Amino acid sequence: xxLIVGAVIVLASVLGGFMMVGGKLLALWHLNEIIVICGSAAxxxxxxxxxxxxxxxxxxxxxxxxxxxxxxxxxxxxxxxRARAAQFIQRLEAAAAGHGQVEQHRIGQGLARLxxxxxxARGFGHDFDRIE
Length: 132
What we know:
Keywords: Flagellar rotation, Membrane, Transmembrane, Transmembrane helix. The chain is mainly α.
């Protein structure tokens, strides 16, 4: 949740500040602007993140990239992954909508029970821990 809030704040401040000084949003959709923005973000990430965390993030990114190939590009060697991912998303949205002002750790415990929706597919199924 904090990741989404942080991303919204960054986008709102960057785009809002750019438009406040008279900039046109389509001007950002040029290669040189994309290089400046992404390079600034990558540099800030490297400066502020310890190497151990960057290695863990790189490993998670590799696993996530594999999941992207499975779900988006439709490899048939993982039958049922799409259906299980859709089922998990439905349950996650239903659980998140029903909790309202409940404390964050209680939400985590409830969502941890949904890990049976995932199947083990090429080594990233072990990343989901059950919290009792």
